[in-house]
Amino acid sequence: MVEQTPVANPRDPERSIALAPRAQTEPARAELACTERLRSLDAEIQALHRQLHTLLPLTSIFQQGGPNDDAENMFRPIIDRIFAAAFSRGASSPNGAPSYALECKDAVCELTIVTANGVSTERVQEALARDTELLRRISKISFGRSRSASEELTNTPVREDKIYWRAIDPDAGEVGMRPPQ
Question: pLDDT by residue (tens digit) across 142-171?
Answer without folding.
Answer: 887 777 777 777 777 888 889 999 998 766
